[in-house]
Design brief:
This protein is of the alpha/beta class. Helices cover 55% and strands 18% of the residues.
Length: 548
């Protein structure tokens, strides 16, 4: 099971420095209104990749820091800091990362339902996701098949559109294109040819001077009394005294290497000198060829590379024009075939969802009844969409409908459900998803908002059951919910020096309660006091929750 194991918050809002250790099961956080419970959730949102606000940094601090450690089952550590200047820093397992990478890594681990986040249930776009997650293996391969078929159809449709566009362009441009292509092919430019000519022409223009200098170099290297002859004579002398002195032997070896190097240079000079062209016609032809290429570039370029690219496009256009019927037939055939495959995949997915919807609604209704919602009714409306409205989720639109009483017709949740009802429906949905929900950590902020005592017991029991397959963390005001906790944290606001005289002197603290402290806190939640009567009621409530 994926677990949030540790949470460290420093200089965040009213929190100075807090370390929390979490375990499996159901964890509750309680405290008086304004104590700072939602600050903890805001800190968690940061490690999930939520948007940071420099205004959340504690007064007098330069930066805020939130760190978390997860068991996934391998250990994963996350660190998120933000400075007063607005800069943010993300570390994943100690390595510098980005906010987007953090979101991708963590959001799949945690499902956080804040006081407004449960409104996502009111968006029909999310309902197909709930149904598919519940159906699991019955839907997953069909959904993958639909996704693959949709990608193949999209590619085939794009290919058809490209062929049709090319065909339209080729019909308009083929005549002019053939003229341009003929011009280009007549000149037959080669890649980089103009640059090569520009580099070669200066040498052709100065051929006489270069030839004279090359001849002088040849004479200096190979002529009578020249460098190589002198080196050979020196070599003969050193050769005669080889073996008498090690220093002279090394000089002879160095001389041999120098002579070899000079001979190589002389060979290059000889080759260069023999290749010098003195023919004025070659210079003229080079100038004419460069002028022709530059003129071609001005007409079809602006560069020679652009001319060659245009040549390839023209060849494609003309090919499309000359083979338009065959290419268009092939593209249309592929688009039609992939569309039929997509329609078949969509029909299979549609049918599987219709089958799954019946049992899904039955389980959702039963779970809602457990949460004291009464004889509410659910239904699923599955609307087949026109082909041009199909989406990545399928060919149909799924919407969960709700009726608060048997005699009331089902309607969209957003139109008839109260805030308390939506919270309980979301909790019912989470319990139905159960093990099918791949999100291991569920966090609820006041899921019991607007709910009374008896219903609170039902919600507590449902959360406890959900905690058998998930790590569940709940911020609650209801003692009936807190009584079911496996671990109970108390969030308090403490003034420095015992005087609550200014906001700057107030700190939020979090403490894990022992059994006796827990009884006292639940007594406070029940009656606002720790009288013996309240303590007795608290013990009875905990015993009741333990026996559920």
């Amino acid at each position: 099971m994926t677990l949030l194991r540790d949470l460290h918050i420093k200089d965040f809002a009213l929190i100075d420095d807090v370390w929390l250790e979490f375990g499996p099961g159901l964890t509750v956080l309680t405290g008086e209104t304004g104590a700072g419970k939602t600050v903890l959730l805001s800190a968690l949102e940061l490690v999930m990749g939520g948007r940071g606000d420099s205004g959340q940094i504690a007064a007098g601090a330069d930066k805020a820091l939130v760190e978390a450690c997860f068991d996934t089952p391998a250990e994963l550590t996350v660190s998120r800091s933000m400075t007063s200047s607005g800069r943010t820093r993300v570390l994943l397992d100690g390595e510098l990362s980005s906010v987007s990478a953090l979101q991708k890594q963590i959001c799949s681990l945690i499902d956080l339902h804040g006081q407004h986040d449960h409104q996502a249930l009111l968006s029909p776009a999310r309902h197909v996701e709930y149904l598919d997650r519940w159906a699991g293996a019955d839907i997953e391969p069909l959904f993958e098949a639909y996704t693959t078929a949709r990608e193949q159809w999209q590619q085939a449709a794009a290919d058809l559109g490209e062929v049709e566009e090319l065909l339209a362009r080729s019909l308009e441009e083929s005549a002019a294109g053939k003229v341009a292509l003929a011009d280009i092919e007549a000149i037959d430019p080669q890649p980089g040819e103009d640059d090569e000519l520009r580099a070669r022409i200066p040498a052709l223009q100065n051929a006489s001077t270069i030839a004279e200098l090359a001849a002088s170099a040849q004479a200096s290297l190979r002529g009578e009394g020249a460098t190589l002859e002198s080196l050979y004579r020196l070599g003969d002398v050193l050769e005669e005294i080889t073996g008498f002195d090690k220093t002279l032997d090394e000089l002879n070896a160095e001389l041999a290497r120098a002579r070899s190097l000079i001979e190589g240079i002389a060979d290059v000079v000889d080759s260069y000198a023999s290749g010098i062209e003195h023919d004025p016609r070659i210079i003229e032809e080079s100038f004419e060829r460069l002028a022709t290429l530059e003129s071609l570039s001005k007409r079809y370029g602006p560069t020679l590379d652009a001319v060659l690219a245009r040549k390839e496009r023209l060849l494609t256009l003309i090919d499309v024009s000359e083979n338009s019927d065959e290419r268009l037939f092939d593209a249309r055939d592929r688009e039609a075939a992939t569309r039929r495959a997509l329609e078949d995949a969509a029909a299979s997915l549609h049918g599987a969802r219709a089958t799954a919807a019946t049992d899904f609604i039955k389980q959702l209704s039963a779970a809602a009844e457990d949460l004291e919602l009464g004889k509410v009714r659910f239904d699923i409306e599955q609307r087949q969409l026109p082909f041009d409205q199909w989406t990545a989720t399928g060919s149909d639109q799924i919407e969960i409908l709700y009726a608060p009483a048997p005699a009331v017709p089902v309607r969209p949740l957003a139109k008839i459900a109260s805030g308390g009802e939506v919270s309980r429906v979301m909790l019912a949905l989470k319990s139905v998803l159960g093990d099918a929900d791949k999100t291991g950590i569920l966090i609820f902020d006041e899921v019991d908002a607007g709910i009374g005592g008896a219903t609170g017991l039902a919600i507590g029991a449902k959360l406890k059951k959900l905690a058998a397959s998930h790590q569940v963390i709940v911020v609650t005001h209801l003692a009936q919910v807190a009584a079911f906790a496996d671990a109970h944290f108390l969030v308090s606001k403490v003034a420095e020096g015992g005087l609550d005289h200014s906001a700057a002197s107030v700190q939020t603290t979090v403490a894990l309660l022992d059994d006796q402290e827990r009884i006292s806190e639940i007594a406070r939640m029940l009656s606002g006091s720790s009288s013996e009567t309240a303590l007795t009621h608290a013990r009875e409530l905990i015993e009741l929750a333990t026996g559920v």
